[in-house]
């Protein structure tokens, strides 16, 4: 995906990708919506993002993985559950050729929702 592209919304971003990647991203999107029903969708830093008081999570399709960016704290807290994925300080790579770990993603998003609410107080 060309980083110079500017997307107006998540639907536009998804529409530029292949059908199989669109399907995975739509699963990811629905999982995030279920875990954060009051979050709003946006594009931030050229990526799909979900925001409440602050951005909860970002995601983007790459050549061999879907990058999921929930900030550092849930990656530290759920390190054991994430051991089979490539991670960095604020990113998780979900391989394109494997099913998304939807229950784990939901747990991460719920963690971020709670974290976001606590910071907003």
Strand order of the largest sheet: 1-2-3-4-6-5
Q: Give the helix/strand class.
A: alpha+beta
Separation of the first and last Cα atoms? 38 Å
The whole-angstrom Rg is: 14 Å
Helix proportion: 25-40%
The rough form would be described as: globular
The total of helices stands at: 4
Overall average pLDDT: 93
What string gives the helices and strands in order? HHEEEEHEEH
Q: Sheet with the most strands?
A: 6 strands, antiparallel
Low-pLDDT parts are: none
Beta strand %: 15-25%
- Count of β-strands: 6
Write up what this structure looks like:
The N and C termini lie far apart (38 Å). α2 packs across α4. A hairpin with a 3-residue loop joins β2 (47-51) and β3 (55-61). The radius of gyration is 14 Å and the shape is globular. The protein is built from 4 helices and 6 strands. The chain has a 6-stranded antiparallel β-sheet with strand order 1-2-3-4-6-5. It is of the alpha+beta class. The longest helix has 19 residues, at 102-120. It has helices at 10-15, 19-35, 72-77, 102-120, and strands at 40-44, 47-51, 55-61, 65-69, 86-87, 92-95. Helix content is 40%, strand content 23%.
């Amino acid at each position: 995906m060309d980083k110079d592209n500017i997307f107006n919304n998540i639907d536009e971003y998804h529409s530029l990708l292949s059908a199989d990647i669109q399907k995975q991203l739509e699963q990811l999107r629905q999982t995030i919506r279920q875990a954060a029903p009051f979050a709003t969708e946006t594009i931030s830093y050229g990526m799909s993002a979900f925001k409440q008081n602050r951005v909860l999570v970002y995601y983007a399709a790459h050549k061999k993985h879907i990058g999921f960016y929930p900030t550092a704290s849930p990656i530290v807290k759920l390190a054991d559950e994430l051991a089979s994925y490539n991670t960095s300080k604020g990113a998780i790579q979900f391989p394109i050729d494997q099913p998304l770990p939807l229950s784990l993603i939901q747990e991460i998003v719920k963690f971020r929702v709670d974290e976001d609410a606590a910071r907003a107080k």
